[in-house]
Amino acid sequence: MIRRIFNLTVLLLLQSANCALQSVYEEFNNKQITLTNTSWKCNDLSSPTQVLTCTKGMDLVVLKEIQQPCHKILNIIETTVPHFKIQLYIDVYGYNTIDANDYFLVGISENSFQESLCIHPFNQGKYLQQCSSNNNIWLTRKSYFQEIAHSNQQLSLEIRSEVDGPFNDESYLFRNVQIILDRCYKTCKTCSGEGKEQCLSCYDDIILSSNNSCDSCQSKTGQNFLQIPDGCRNKCTNNQDYDEDYVCIEDINLQVKCEIDCELCTNTQSCLICKPQKYLYFGQCMDQCPKYTIVYGTNCLSNIDSLLKNKNLRITQLVREFHDLSTTKSLTNELFQIISTTNQYSLQKGNDIYYSYFSNKRIFGGPLVWVNAEFKFTKSWIQEFQFIRIFFEVILGDIELNKNILTYKLNDQQQETIILNEMYQGNNPNIQDQIWPDNYQFNIYKVEKSINFFIQSNKQLTIEIKCQNANELGFCGIQNMVIIGFSNCEPEYNFDFHNYETGRNPCIPICGDKIVVGDEECDDGNNDPFDGCFNCRYECEDQCSECLYGYCIIEKTKPLLYSQKIQNDTVEYKLKCQESEDWYCGSICNGQIQNQNQFLSQNYFCNCNCLHCVKGICYLCQEGNYLFNNDCIVEKIDQIMYVEQKSFCGDGIIQVFEQCDDTNYLLFDGCFACKHSCDINCYQCFFGRCEICKYGYVLTSDSNCFLNCGDDLILPYQNEQCDNQNTIGYDGCYCKLECQPYCLYCDKVQQCLKCKKGFSLQNNYCIPICGDGFIVNGFEECDDANYQPFDGCYECKYQCHQNCGICNKGNCQHEICQLGMQWTINSCSAICGDNLVVEIEECDDGNSQEFDGCFNCKYSCIENCEICKEGSCRGCKQGFFLKDNKCLDLTIQQYQYQDYQLTIQNSKNFWICHDQECAYSQSPKMKIVLLNQFFQEQYIQVYFDQEVKLKETTENLSFELFDIQLKNYNVSTYRIKLYPIQEIAYDAQQISYQIEIKNLINFDEKPLLQIDLINEVTNTNNQTVSQRQVEIKLKTSIFLSDEKRLISLQTRTSNKVLMIVGISFSVLSLISGETSFFVQILNVLQYQSYLKFINIDYPENLVIYFSASEILEISTYLQIMEIDQIYNIITPKEESPEVDGKFKFYNVDPDLFINILPQIIQMITLLTLLLLGKKYYELLTFTINSRNITNILSDNLNCFKLIIIKIFTKLRIWIKGIMSILT
């Protein structure tokens, strides 16, 4: 099931791709080529038959000499998708001594296109090494690539050889024929280019617009959907999906003509489903997953694929290439640019051919392509990414070790080096070539890097890659290249860098945000234990026996026995718990002895000195009492008597100075020595529950820390002997040293001593034995205990007799069986259990389980079913009834109903029951919160934690929903106003009200606000509110009467007058030349203006008094002169930061520049005065000097002159006198 779900995801990803380039034809690209079912025809309409097959490497199709009909082969290929150009790619091989006049020709008849290629001189090639009798024959390879204008719905392709010698002397061979269409825009029927406005004609009767674009079929009545290439239709074929323009999503081209281990693949040879006992990795079927991958069903996932599977990540896939045949030449040349090449060994297939083939995959570089050359990879983007993750695999090959070197450098990071220093471990038939010797060395290396783009300004990734080889047969290659950009986690998750670096899911749910996501069971927005949810896991109070979804279903109850006696006028209660046999005594409660019968009838009763009681356990006592043994005792110690046994650590009772008591002395079980204690490997412990484990450990559901096997870490003093970063068994290490795969016995250093049956020991590895008559699954298809060819099995692979048309598992059959059938004896028969239903089968569910709807490919209903139709039960036998597709016994259901009643009797309001079924549902709660206080007014919000509504029996809305009162104050001492934020109605909504309470006297004691819900309110499940009364303590408040407020206003006016007088004297002193007096007055005024910012909650009268300092603020005068906008232009801000306290109260911006600007203006003013000081001094001297004034005044103003002189003289003497007194 996992394999099918994963492959369905791959298909959907392929379907969502919408590219201008589309591969419509791929053939002769399998490692083993068969010509039995090919559509290619020779000149005489026969089929080509000759294929060059070597021991290793890929098969090649042979073109005959010019005298033979099969020197030319033709094929007609459907190209119905609208296009304007094709890209044709063929790998061409020159076999042996090709002459200068021997040509390989390609032609397209409908375009009258023809082009030739000559692979000469032949000695530029390499000798064959893996073709037995054909060894030491030259093989020269070139790649033919051409872009050709084409728009027809069929392509008539012709391939021809002009050699005149026999095959052993000279011949042309080829493989990997690929045709890629340059498609038109989706609404164009014919076009001149890929643009939307490059249409030549439209579908059906849609008219071509003036800008050469075509509309979709949306406006056509009854035919709204555009099915490419058929035209407008009333629905998409096979009810497929469609895009925003109602263009049907095209079907994926799937085929069963795949590699030998693949069952189903795309036309680009990317395998989707492998055969049994094979693992799928990047479109290839393998015997086992690479060690650096994760096994997910039958798929091998790299770390980067694991990240892509997580839905809580915001990831964009930037590059995914070189994993099948879909990577085109144009895209390769776009991503990679050649920087330099040092010799003639590289690019032997063509100067701009940067890729080659290995089996069903096109890789970058490869043999004869990338030997000694340096490339630069470049990829840019426009999105904002935090990290870029890069993954690719490097293939290195050479005839000897330690000679092939690859270096790479990502952006500005350090250069890294990979050296071919060891041979690939295992069998990989995909990496082979005919020109390699038997001792050829190769290996695959993983490269996985991450770049932090928090501090990167450029949005570009560059990789400089250089391959250096001393041998011509050495090469470098890159496959399975994936690059993703990581933006962020979804809003409900936090980013964990360690998980990101180790390939785990980096997005961790935020515990405490009141949103339940991921592996969270609950989230109540706090970290309080025993409140139903703790650390985002359901948890009930400590006295609960059965906890369900955070609610206690069955509580712990202890039968209590009381006896009463009088000793020295002190009343003593003896409390005996029958379970623990512990005795302790209570005390007098406010001088009152409680009724014993009433006390016995209440199992969950706290005494009257307790303020907060939860099911018999007191958590908070009244003033003058203190908590002891979950009870409140009075301050007078002489009224308390202890009897029998004193409490101790380990008695199960949490005493003073004890954090916990679990009645044992076990280490690391959550409580030790009455102190909270977590697992020894816990990094962060909270109330005995581990929240974060140490590095190398994983946190389990019961808050323990276990070793993380498979994290590539070996922790000291632990049980790990090794860690190879996987959890694959029998690969030498499973956190303990183990034998190699298929080894039966090995010594202490894991050297294999004896292999399992069917294997032989070679170089400490168990290798399958071919020819022993024993079939080793996964390695051998068959084993007939001989080496006779054409007898059904040869070299442990199926092989039919020569000239067999269709070979199926060693049997030559006369026809091809359809999918879901197999050849048996002389006909095709159905395969029962393959999940495919063929004509002779009623059903096929892929298993042999009875009573599941299908058994032995026949319909089969559930047990005790009487009426069965197509695997679905329509009626049960007598004594049974049908429910949820099951026939249930009526007798058992009656017992189950009784169990339901027993389960819900303690929590009826948390269950919704119908007939005999009950479902858990939490009832709504009323909650209250204090918003803020503004002197005499306090603001409170009351709301419900669910959407609620009025009960349907309520007749009208003209009633009060709440009864609101202050319990410790008379109703005449305060005034209450209720403001609806969202008023209640008959439909369910998030209801919220705001309450304003204004005190009319001084509130010296904190008032206790009590709100009672006085009407029936329910949620959508008609559950009533479980908590109909809520309380909250408000703040103390001083009442300011109208008389006192008037006095405060008069005081503020007096303060303003004093400030104005002070400012006037300071100005006069500045004019008179006494600057020290000016500075002192300004200091006093500034100090008074700053008093209001002291972090003390002033009463309202002082706030009124301090408001007089507004005349000292520059902003006041800017607003009066209406030039405050100029000030805002000088100090522009997009948004103001959040502030609190006095800054918020007085609306003061804490920005440094805004607050320092007045000082800058003052400094500029003072500098200006200093620069003009000399002129001012001369003017002042001139003005004050009596002789100058006398000269100014005329002779007829002698009296006026005397008056002026006396005034200035007296003013100066007066100012100096005041200054002498003040100083």
Automatic annotation (TrEMBL):
Segments traversing the membrane: none
Q: Which residues form the signal peptide?
A: 1-19
Q: Which InterPro entries match?
A: Furin_repeat, Myxo_disulph_rpt
Q: Which Pfam families match?
A: DUF4215
Q: Which UniProt keywords apply?
A: Disulfide bond, Repeat, Signal
Q: Any idea what this protein is called?
A: Insulin-like growth factor binding protein, N-terminal
